[in-house]
Amino acid sequence: MSHTQEAAVPTDSTPYKDASMSCGHCNYTLKPTYHQAFELVRLQPINCYQCGSDLLLDEADRQVLDKKLHTATRIGKLALLILGPYFLISLLATLYFMFFAKPPFPGFSGVLFGGGLVIGFLLKSAATDSEERDFVLFKQGKRPSAQTQAA
Ligand SMILES: [Zn+2]
Predict the structure, then answer these.
(1) In which domain of life is the source organism classified (predicted)?
(2) Residue 48 CA, ligand 1 centroid: distance in Å
(3) 113-138: per-residue pLDDT in tens?
(4) How far apart, in whole angstroms, are the C-alpha atoms of residue 39 and residue 34?
(5) 100 Cα to the center of ligand 1, angstroms
(6) Every domain of the chain and the residues it spans
(7) Cα–Cα distance, 14 to 37 (Å, whole number)
């Protein structure tokens, strides 16, 4: 069972695609990994690939990202809890109807697996926050004062 759990936990190098981030100093579009996204939440700066600034999120943005990551993690665990047993039962049911009994209707096992895919899809869309957000990162998370006044 351990290998399935590892597959669901994003590794350090998994790209974090649920939010777009850019460098506030050179406008470079950052493509952070999950590891870096978690680093940002923990107030660990990430380095801009282009201008080399140590970048942090604005405190308000940091909280939004924190919430996003936690929702995704929670739903990822939930998906394992639901889909693991679901596919196991589907597999057993498929084998059972293949060898021991007539299926209730043709294509029964296809429906079982299709149902699993639907559940997977629903969980995936629940995990991905519908709220699209562009995070702009600055040194120490501080927006240059000129831009704060502009808003
Ligand atoms: Zn930069």
Answers:
(1) Bacteria
(2) 5
(3) 899 889 988 888 887 766 677 899 99
(4) 8
(5) 64
(6) 2-150
(7) 10
